[in-house]
């Protein structure tokens, strides 16, 4: 027994820094993900038509559940928790799908039911997920994550205009003022992102919301008069919005989201394992996914939503070099305490919509950019992946561009495909199987599709005429520099005769001095 304990202590993530440092670094983790964890309850609560106090309750509950999930993931018990520094919180992946469900017949109770049922399905397949993850390569996950970000921009636009009521009323004067406030908030975030301080830059969205709200308060566009209405400290009321209801189509939609979350969490577990330099095996991944799904299953009982690992906090572990899982557990404790303070939820719910709209442009854009970054890892030349990406994203954008496109279809079909995320996910998975798993009928290896063929390379005549007076027979380009026939570098000079370092082309594979 002592030998096992000694072995576990040697793991980098088992280092204990003490109560003070752990709470300090843990609070930094909370600040890093705070903007991301409060946005989903505000979006879903707004779509459900909840009052300010009810949205405040959702925010507090999501913090409470996120704190419990984080502590479970980082501390870990038998079969539950990867025992890695992973911060858990309400997943952005399900926001658009939950909004689509809440706009249906079942309301927010159908959302809670779909979350519970899909989490149960995710829990059951967690031990086997490592075997089916092959169906979720970067070409699939990249499409889904990109679509998640893109599908949320209508929410940001509506926030920027002042919310659904103002947007539907068409008050041009009010919309003008609100959009200007959203633009001011966006400008503040951009300026904070440019500050040399790494801490301020990382917290730019949160600080931008705070400063944007203070600016709104100064010009009379914010109202915090009802913040003190209600209790300061309270335990989240279980099933405050009534018992969950279970609609098959809603469950199928959320199950698709859960598969994406399982993929993301698996990637985060592997990534943080590499950062911490610790062993991550199939058992550890399964334990982490079970903690994810177990917390997601229980979340609706406390008015919360699907839980997942926060990728930005994985990045924070890499930046700070603090590998202790007890630091993240301390952050989970802080979130739990914040969730017991409904007054904090009322403060968040009182933040003006246009301020959230300005921050949402960056926040949702960051999600889309993360998907684009994932798609950047995909090989396109000589493969059908470009067809998969373009078609799946196109299908995902259809219900975003035309929300009523599936109104004539059966209810179950409309519920699933009304969400751009579900549409893109289903399309990406099926197309990936069709083109990359089923090889029959594919073009010869290396040829790809006509859509992926590289355009013919050419050089403009004007460029050649411009170079004719400078180049000589035998001149070549080597390592981005012009070299003559004897292998000597031909220097570049300015009009004043000064010799400068000016590469002819970038020193990378496939570069050329030709125009395209």
UniProtKB/TrEMBL annotation:
Q: Which domain of life is it from?
A: Bacteria
Keywords of the record, alphabetical order, are:
Cell membrane, Membrane, Transmembrane, Transmembrane helix, Transport
Provide the protein's localization: Cell membrane
Q: How does it sit in the membrane?
A: Multi-pass membrane protein
Entries under Pfam families matching the protein: Xan_ur_permease
Q: Does the keyword Oxidoreductase apply?
A: no
From the record, give the transmembrane residue ranges: 31-50, 56-77, 108-128, 135-155, 175-193, 205-225, 245-262, 326-345, 351-372, 384-403, 415-435
Keyword Lyase assigned to the entry: answer is no
Under PANTHER family, the record lists: PURINE PERMEASE C1399.01C-RELATED, URIC ACID TRANSPORTER UACT
Hey, which family's this protein in?
Answer: Belongs to the nucleobase:cation symporter-2 (NCS2) (TC 2.A.40) family.
**Protein name listed in UniProt:** Nucleobase:cation symporter-2 family protein
Organism of this sequence: Kocuria carniphila
């Amino acid at each position: 027994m002592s030998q096992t304990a000694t072995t576990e202590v040697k793991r980098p993530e088992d280092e204990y820094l003490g109560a003070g440092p752990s709470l300090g670094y843990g609070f930094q983790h909370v600040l890093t993900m705070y903007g991301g964890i409060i946005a989903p309850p505000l979006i879903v609560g707004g779509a459900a038509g909840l009052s300010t106090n009810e949205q405040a309750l959702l925010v507090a509950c999501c913090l409470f559940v996120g704190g419990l999930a984080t502590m479970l993931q980082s501390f870990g018990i038998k079969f539950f928790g990867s025992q890695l520094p992973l911060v858990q919180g309400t997943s952005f992946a399900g926001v658009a799908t939950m909004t689509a469900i809440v706009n249906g017949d079942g309301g927010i109770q159908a959302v809670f039911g779909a979350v519970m049922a899909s989490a149960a399905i995710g829990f059951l397949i967690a031990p086997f997920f490592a075997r089916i993850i092959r169906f979720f390569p970067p070409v699939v996950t990249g499409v889904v994550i990109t679509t998640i970000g893109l599908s949320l921009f209508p929410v940001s636009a509506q926030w920027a205009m002042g919310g659904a009521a103002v947007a539907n009323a068409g008050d041009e004067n009010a919309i003008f003022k609100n959009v200007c406030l959203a633009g001011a908030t966006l400008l503040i975030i951009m300026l904070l992102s440019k500050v040399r301080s790494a801490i301020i830059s990382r917290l730019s969205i949160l600080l931008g919301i705070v400063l944007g709200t203070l600016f709104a308060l100064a010009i009379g566009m914010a109202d915090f008069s009802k913040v003190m209405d209600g209790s300061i400290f309270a335990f989240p009321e279980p099933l405050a919005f009534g018992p969950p209801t279970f609609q098959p189509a809603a469950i199928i939609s959320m199950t698709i989201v859960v598969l994406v979350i399982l993929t993301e969490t698996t990637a985060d577990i592997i990534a943080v394992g590499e950062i911490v330099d610790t062993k991550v095996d199939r058992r550890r991944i399964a334990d982490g996914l079970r903690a994810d799904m177990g917390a997601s299953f229980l979340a609706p009982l406390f008015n919360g939503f699907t839980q997942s690992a926060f990728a930005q906090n994985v990045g924070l572990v890499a930046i700070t070099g603090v590998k202790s899982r007890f630091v993240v557990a301390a952050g989970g404790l802080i979130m739990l305490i914040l969730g017991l303070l409904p007054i904090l939820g009322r403060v968040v719910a009182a933040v003006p919509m246009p301020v959230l709209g300005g921050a949402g442009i960056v926040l949702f854009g960051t999600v889309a950019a993360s998907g684009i970054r994932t798609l950047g890892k995909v090989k396109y030349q000589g493969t059908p992946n470009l067809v998969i990406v373009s078609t799946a994203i196109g299908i995902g954008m259809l219900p975003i561009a035309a929300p009523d496109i599936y109104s004539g279809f059966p209810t179950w079909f409309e519920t699933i495909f009304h969400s751009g995320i579900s549409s893109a996910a289903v399309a990406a998975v099926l197309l990936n199987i069709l083109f990359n798993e089923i090889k029959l009928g594919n073009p010869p290896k290396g040829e790809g599709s006509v859509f992926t063929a590289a355009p013919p390379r050419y050089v403009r005549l004007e460029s050649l005429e411009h170079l004719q007076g400078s180049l000589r027979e035998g001149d070549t380009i080597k390592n981005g520099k012009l070299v003559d026939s004897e292998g000597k570098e031909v220097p570049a000079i300015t009009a004043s005769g000064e010799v400068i370092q000016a590469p002819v082309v970038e020193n990378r594979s496939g570069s050329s001095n030709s125009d395209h």
